[in-house]
Amino acid sequence: MHHIPNILSSFRILLIPFFALFAYRGDMVWAAVVLIVSGLTDLLDGFLARRFDWISNLGKMLDPIADKLTQITVCVFFAFRLGGWFRLFFAFLIFKEIAQLGIGMYLLGKDVKLKSADRSGKITTLLFYASMIAIALFPDLPHYAMYILLAVLCVSGLLTGLHYLSLYRRQPETVEK
């Protein structure tokens, strides 16, 4: 039973090509369904890992990789689909995900293991899924509404990133060796 969170994270990685296929074919309802399933399994794997102490070193790597790959894939798709000024928002989100992945790999190489995401990270992830599902399901949303969704998401991501940097710079006890 303790492998269930890792299975769910692996399942999220396996969902990525299905999102890409449905989105590429223009079947945005099914692409949104894949995102909903991905988001729910993300919540479930984190809940199970913490609730039953099914946390593993593999899970500590697999979960953020599944998150980053999913979010980067979704951002790349929507950057190309929406084009124009929307690309700036998605470029920022992609940069943020790649930077977080790079920092995580760097710290992993130094045998520093960060504690799990706090509330701000969970809120940003929830905002990501909600925004992308809304954009997928409602392609006729006025551009200003999409700009607002993406601006809120980018600000949330930036604030969360700054929060984590501040937390880990000022409080070394928040990292585990």
CA-to-CA gap between the ends?
27 Å
Predict the CATH topology: Four Helix Bundle (Hemerythrin (Met), subunit A)
CATH architecture: Up-down Bundle
Q: How many β-strand stretches?
A: 2
Number of helices: 6
| Rounded radius of gyration (Å) | 16 Å
Total count of domains? 1
Strand proportion: under 5%
For this entry, what is the oligomeric state of its chains?
single chain
Major β-sheet annotation? 2 strands, antiparallel
Give helix and strand order, one letter per element, not per position. HHHHEHHE
- Mass-distribution shape: globular
Structural class: mainly alpha
Helix content: over 70%
Widest sheet: strand ordering: 1-2
Q: Which residue ranges are poorly predicted, with pLDDT under 50 across at least 5 consecutive positions?
A: 173-177
Class, according to the CATH hierarchy?
Answer: Mainly Alpha
CATH homologous superfamily title = CDP-alcohol phosphotransferase transmembrane (TM) domain
Average predicted confidence as pLDDT:
88
Task: Please render the helix and strand layout as text.
Blueprint: H1 4-24, H2 28-51, H3 57-82, H4 86-109, E1 113-114, H5 119-137, H6 143-170, E2 175-176
Antiparallel strand pairs: 1-2
Helix pairs in contact: 1-2, 1-3, 2-5, 3-4, 4-6, 5-6
What features would you describe in this structure?
The protein has 177 residues and is an all-alpha fold. The protein has 6 helices and 2 strands. Strands 1-2 form a two-stranded antiparallel sheet. Mean pLDDT is 88; it is low at 173-177.
